[in-house]
Specification:
Elements: H1 3-40, H2 44-53, H3 58-71, H4 75-83, H5 86-96, H6 100-113, H7 117-125, H8 128-138, H9 143-156, H10 160-168, H11 171-181, H12 186-199, H13 203-211, H14 214-224, H15 229-241
Helix pairs in contact: 1-3, 2-3, 2-5, 3-6, 5-6, 6-9, 8-9, 8-11, 9-12, 11-12, 11-14, 12-15, 14-15
Length: about 240
């Protein structure tokens, strides 16, 4: 076959592939818009049903989790998401999809949901602590996941029973490791110090925090971020309790 014929074929294939890629991108964009519309209209049940019907589709899961994150910024919606089965859907997504974008989206959604005290109990009861610790351990260099996961543990540890659960699931060690690995990141340090502060409300955890190197991590946080008010507020309270 002559050269120009091969060139024509290659150009045709490239054009075909490009159109397919553009179609996929358009579909993904349309899906994201649909998710956003569902969220705005408050159709939580449809959103959560979509997650349950497409458990293996990471793009669906990531988009839906992101939508739930936004919805859960509202006090009323925190209650509604839990009532519609959103907590179980989020954790199912987290366990099936270890990729960073899903892990971060789930952690952000859980962070907002667990501002509600009843949800702190519900989220822990669904087995979230182990999943969150796994996220911390599985993405040690991802600062966004580290921050969000530590923030969830901070909220969960407001509850006394959860303080025990987090410690039993190696959560204290995971938080300290996060602090050590991201000592220059103020957001990670703030969330981690908050988690250790709440965990140390339990007397046994105070011993565990010290044994896991938490005191040294807190001192480092204070030294590395001398002007960060929230880090200092949380760190000094934690140091007093330890």
């Amino acid at each position: 076959m002559c050269l120009h014929r091969w060139t024509d074929i290659c150009m045709y294939v490239c054009m075909y592939v490009r159109k397919q890629v553009e179609s996929v991108q358009a579909l993904a964009d349309a899906f994201r818009r649909t998710i956003a519309d569902l969220a705005k209209e408050g159709k939580l049940s449809l959103l959560i049903q979509g997650m349950l019907k497409h458990p293996g589709h990471e793009h669906v899961q990531a988009a839906a989790c992101k939508a739930l994150e936004g919805l859960a910024a509202s006090d009323d919606n925190r209650v509604k998401v839990a009532a519609e089965g959103g907590i179980a859907a989020l954790l199912g997504s987290m366990q099936r999809h270890p990729i960073a974008k899903v892990q971060e989206a789930v952690c952000r959604a859980l962070q907002n949901l667990t501002v509600n005290v009843d949800n702190q109990v519900k989220v822990a009861a669904e087995g979230s602590v182990g999943a969150i610790v796994t996220a911390l351990q599985g993405h040690p260099t991802d600062a966004k996941i580290q921050e969000a996961a530590c923030a969830v543990l901070m909220n969960l540890a407001v509850n006394a029973d959860n303080q025990v659960k987090v410690a039993a699931e190696s959560g204290i060690s995971a938080v300290v490791t996060s602090m050590e690995g991201h000592s220059a990141d103020a957001k990670v340090q703030e969330a981690a110090c908050g988690a250790l502060r709440n965990l140390a409300s339990n007397a046994n955890n105070q011993v565990k925090v010290a044994a896991e190197g938490g005191v040294g991590a807190i001192v480092t946080a204070l030294q590395r971020h001398p002007t960060h008010a929230k880090i200092h507020g949380r760190s000094k309270r934690q140091a007093a309790e330890s």
